[in-house]
Design brief:
This protein has helices at residues 4-12, 59-69; strands at residues 18-21, 31-38, 41-48, 54-56, 83-87. The protein has 94 residues and is of the alpha+beta class. The longest helix has 11 residues, at 59-69.
Protein backbone atom coordinates (compact mmCIF):
# COMPACT_ATOMS: atom_id res chain seq x y z
CA UNK A 1 0.00 0.00 0.00
CA UNK A 2 1.31 3.38 -0.91
CA UNK A 3 -0.87 5.42 1.44
CA UNK A 4 -3.62 5.26 4.03
CA UNK A 5 -6.39 6.25 1.58
CA UNK A 6 -5.59 3.29 -0.67
CA UNK A 7 -5.81 0.92 2.30
CA UNK A 8 -9.16 2.43 3.37
CA UNK A 9 -10.52 2.06 -0.17
CA UNK A 10 -9.42 -1.58 -0.37
CA UNK A 11 -11.10 -2.46 2.94
CA UNK A 12 -14.33 -0.61 2.08
CA UNK A 13 -14.63 -2.51 -1.20
CA UNK A 14 -14.23 -5.94 0.38
CA UNK A 15 -17.23 -8.22 -0.13
CA UNK A 16 -18.95 -10.27 2.54
CA UNK A 17 -16.97 -13.48 3.21
CA UNK A 18 -13.89 -12.21 1.36
CA UNK A 19 -10.36 -12.67 2.69
CA UNK A 20 -7.30 -10.66 1.70
CA UNK A 21 -3.72 -11.25 2.78
CA UNK A 22 -0.59 -9.18 2.86
CA UNK A 23 1.67 -11.02 0.36
CA UNK A 24 4.27 -13.43 1.71
CA UNK A 25 7.11 -11.56 -0.03
CA UNK A 26 8.32 -10.17 3.27
CA UNK A 27 10.09 -12.49 5.69
CA UNK A 28 7.80 -11.51 8.53
CA UNK A 29 4.31 -12.47 9.67
CA UNK A 30 1.33 -12.49 7.33
CA UNK A 31 -1.79 -10.50 8.10
CA UNK A 32 -5.14 -12.00 7.05
CA UNK A 33 -8.15 -9.69 6.85
CA UNK A 34 -11.66 -11.19 6.69
CA UNK A 35 -15.02 -9.47 6.13
CA UNK A 36 -17.80 -11.18 8.07
CA UNK A 37 -21.27 -10.57 9.47
CA UNK A 38 -21.71 -10.76 13.26
CA UNK A 39 -25.01 -9.87 14.94
CA UNK A 40 -26.29 -8.35 11.71
CA UNK A 41 -23.29 -6.01 11.26
CA UNK A 42 -20.50 -6.22 8.71
CA UNK A 43 -17.12 -6.28 10.41
CA UNK A 44 -13.46 -6.81 9.67
CA UNK A 45 -11.49 -9.53 11.45
CA UNK A 46 -7.69 -9.19 11.41
CA UNK A 47 -5.73 -12.37 12.08
CA UNK A 48 -2.05 -12.34 12.96
CA UNK A 49 -0.10 -15.38 14.10
CA UNK A 50 0.24 -15.60 17.91
CA UNK A 51 -2.14 -12.67 18.52
CA UNK A 52 -5.78 -12.44 19.44
CA UNK A 53 -8.14 -11.79 16.51
CA UNK A 54 -8.92 -8.08 16.14
CA UNK A 55 -12.57 -7.26 15.36
CA UNK A 56 -13.98 -3.91 14.28
CA UNK A 57 -17.00 -2.52 12.46
CA UNK A 58 -15.21 0.78 11.69
CA UNK A 59 -12.83 1.01 8.77
CA UNK A 60 -10.67 3.77 10.31
CA UNK A 61 -10.02 1.74 13.48
CA UNK A 62 -9.14 -1.30 11.38
CA UNK A 63 -6.71 0.76 9.30
CA UNK A 64 -5.12 2.17 12.47
CA UNK A 65 -4.58 -1.37 13.77
CA UNK A 66 -3.12 -2.56 10.45
CA UNK A 67 -0.74 0.40 10.33
CA UNK A 68 0.45 -0.41 13.85
CA UNK A 69 1.26 -3.93 12.68
CA UNK A 70 2.82 -2.90 9.38
CA UNK A 71 3.63 0.79 8.92
CA UNK A 72 3.44 1.88 5.29
CA UNK A 73 6.92 3.41 5.29
CA UNK A 74 8.37 0.13 6.60
CA UNK A 75 6.58 -2.20 4.20
CA UNK A 76 7.77 -2.65 0.62
CA UNK A 77 5.37 -4.69 -1.47
CA UNK A 78 6.77 -5.76 -4.85
CA UNK A 79 3.25 -6.57 -6.09
CA UNK A 80 1.89 -3.13 -5.04
CA UNK A 81 -1.41 -4.76 -4.08
CA UNK A 82 -3.06 -7.09 -1.63
CA UNK A 83 -3.61 -10.62 -2.82
CA UNK A 84 -7.28 -11.50 -2.99
CA UNK A 85 -7.69 -15.07 -1.86
CA UNK A 86 -11.15 -16.30 -1.04
CA UNK A 87 -14.72 -15.24 -1.54
CA UNK A 88 -17.52 -17.65 -0.69
CA UNK A 89 -20.96 -17.03 -2.14
CA UNK A 90 -24.14 -19.00 -2.28
CA UNK A 91 -24.63 -22.48 -0.94
CA UNK A 92 -21.58 -22.57 1.34
CA UNK A 93 -22.53 -19.53 3.45
CA UNK A 94 -23.35 -20.45 7.03
Amino acid sequence: MRNRAELVEKLEHMHYNQTITFPAARSNFQVHIHRRIRNGELMWLVEVKDKEIYRSTRVQQTVDYLLQLRPITDYVNPMNRFVEEVQFDGIYNC
